[in-house]
Amino acid sequence: MGFSTFLVLAVVAGVLLGNVPETLAARRDRQQQQQQQRCQRIKTPQCKDVGLPYERTVFPNIFGQDSQKSAKSSLKKWEQVIETGCSAYIRPLLCAAFVPACPRKSSQTLPPCRELCMKAKMECESQITESPLEWPVELNCDTLPSYNPERKTPKCIHYEPPKPAHCKLHKEIGPCSTYHPFWYFDRVAKTCQTFTYGGCLGNKNRFETKEACIRTCGQESTIAPGMLSTTLDITTNEATTPQPLPKVLERPMDQTVFEGETVTLNCFASGALEYTWRRIAGPMPEHKILAEEYSREGAILIIADMMPEDAGLYMCIAENQAGVEESVASITVLVPPRIVKFPDSALIIQGETLELKCEFTGVPPPKVYWEREDGQFVSQRVNGTESTVIISNINDIQTGMRFTCVGRNEAGLDKRFIDVEVKVPPYFTAFARNRTLNEGETADFLCQAEGTRPLTITWYKNGEPLVADGVRTIFFDNGTSFHITSTTPSDSGRYTCSASNTVGQIVDDVYFQVIASAALPRITESPSNATIYIGQSIRFHCQASGDPVPTVSWLVDGFTIGVPPLDRDMRYSFNGTDLVIDHVNVRDAGKYTCLVTSPHGMERVSAQLRIREPKLEMETAISDTNVIIGDDLVLTCEASGEPEPSLTWYRNGLPINETLQRFSLEENSLIIPILTSKMGGSYKCIYDNGVLTASSSAMVEILEPTAITPASSMPPPMSNSTTATPQPSGTNDMSDTDLSELGTAPSSLMELKLRRYDVTDTGIPDLFRGWADVQGQGAANDYCRVIEPVEGQYQLSCVLAGSEGEVNYTTNLGFEIGERNTWYMKDEDGDGRDDYCRCMREAGQGRWVYCTKAGANGFYGNPDAEDFETNEVSFRAPGPGEELKKCRKRRVDPFFGLPETLE
Length: 903
Known about the structure:
It is built from eleven helices and 59 strands. The chain has about 900 residues and is mainly beta. It has seven domains: about 40-160, Frizzled cysteine-rich domain, CATH 1.10.2000; about 165-215, Factor Xa Inhibitor (Irregular); about 340-425, Immunoglobulins (Immunoglobulin-like, Sandwich), CATH 2.60.40; about 425-515, Sandwich (Immunoglobulin-like); about 520-610, Sandwich (Immunoglobulin-like); about 630-705 and about 720-750, Immunoglobulins (Immunoglobulin-like); about 770-900, no CATH class. Strands 6, 8, 11, 12, 14, 16 and 17 form a seven-stranded mixed β-sheet that branches. A hairpin with a 3-residue loop joins strand 55 and strand 56. Helix 5 packs across helix 6 (about 115-125). It is flat, with a radius of gyration of 47 Å. Keywords: Disulfide bond, Immunoglobulin domain, Repeat, Signal.
């Protein structure tokens, strides 16, 4: 039962029974009820449903704040520290301080425990130092009470966050073997132990330090006894301090009521001997006072039928021998708005000025605004209690438009409607546009208009009324649609639609042309679907006819390829009828469309290009062998693949027919009869399917008959190698080199890193993308392209040959790509690596061709590429200065750096 209810009952009881002194027990019960009445559910978002050991709060807190609204505002300043995740204790600490728990038996709120304060402050010290916040003096950890788990009744709020679920997992070394020392939490021993982690695919129960393990898993989650209920069961000894002056403990609350409602004001002060009620700046409404009771336990004032003239400030005065204490409450009486003057209807002609007025009353003065049925904004002019809307030159309101005048204040709203009738001249809502059709096609002309009904639609051709024959020319929908089938050139001309009503008339023209069949662009030879292997070439052919001769262009998957193509592996025939793609890759697969256009129209046809991955596998390799003079040598080398490979034999780096006159080839075998002492050396078989090569090498030693050595005492054979590699453009073929002359086994020769054909992000169309050599291996096997990892910020990224992943060699984010069609990749500084060059403006230097150097680990300007500071504007490209200053006007080959055009 609240204090106000208690006093109301006391008034009635006092009238019937007289004043009965309140017992000490009754007073304690009343204080406890008052305390519970002030308890409220936590609504502050920072502390609601976050795992706190209580659900209800009470104010004031230790900062003197008396509402959750004030606490919410203060906690919002600490959100940046909480969201860093610096400590699991920081949120419970701040919530315990700003939104304290609601106790059961004591009027005093509980502060947070010292241990909770110290943990949160220590773990978040750096984040707090970097923020503009200062640690509150009220949260001085040294002055807070300590947590005693043995106490049944806690003196402070204690909290331990629950351990993460991964603290219960067993340690997991993982399948990898790059061992690292780590710590894990042993859930049986409840301690942190060391173990060796393999380096991959483990679980989260691993920590780099023991301190991190203990901080995360080292303690069981604890909640102080007595903290599990929604309110705290707290009993403390209350020390009473005599007050020389009355102190208002329950002040009369500010209230807002509607007219005619009743107001109840309560006031209680400690040490008060007498109470008095007064009204500031006005007389008390004596005839409306239902009850006015004073006692040492408090005062109550009940006023009925409140009106606006009764609003104002009401003061409670508490007195004793030491002096007077005052407390003031503000009473506001609301009067709903009432619109007292409003027109019944309005008739307006489009183009005239509309004026609407409405008059209103209310307390507080209502906010008045006009609304239109179509949702458009309505401006208004307010003069005292009158609001006027003036709309000049109305030209977009349909008949029956409704306006609403709304008056709104805290007490409610009132509204009135008025229907405005507008007569509107005709206007077009849909109309056919100029068009060109081919002979024999069907033409549809649309003319739709709106305005005040009735509306009349009339058609004209070349100024003469149009008459439909009902067969080839037909009207639909009362003339709003006109239809012509099997069009001929004679149907060409100017077609006019006229719409009229009692207000006005409008006309519009459409020009129609029919093209004779002989002049239309036609595709006479179409490209065909094709399936080829990676690395092969394809030619799409497209022939067209028409008058004038149509232009042929090509698209891939709906995107224009461009003239010339940006991809250096694409090229056109001299008139564009053929599209040739050399060294196809997986990214070249798709739908290729031949588009022929002329002033009379267009036609297109598409062909699908499917790319298959070539295969080549060595099944039987040759090996080192010793042969006696006079015996036959038989070497068998077998491989399979797609496309079908061909076999070539080499001896000492040269084709077999250039080094030997006497040999035979049978299927996959090389047969040399009656060996002589000069027929030894390095033998090699190479399979080639036009895309991949696979090879196997062996050393053949010719022995004299007396030089035969038992197998057990023979030295180990020389190493043989079998390789399968693609044939990148520009790669030297080692088949012409006599390996025996190099003094090394074939397997010791450095092999080129293979191109990657599994790239999924091929880059942004129309920006740089293609093959380059940024590793300096002498072959353009690295795929480089411009990507956009973050919207509006470019980056040049290369997929290195022989690597994994697609972003392993990059520039900095926000890379300057330069002027369009001026970029290229070429080794401009002579270090063997291709640099990225483009036309751009450098601060204070004007435009030039600037290059970004390719470094050992990435492009210059990327801070992760080199150990020393670099710049993406690494150096100027060499060349004639007068031409390079005009780099913006020249078009450059993206892979050779040579200007193709200079405007």
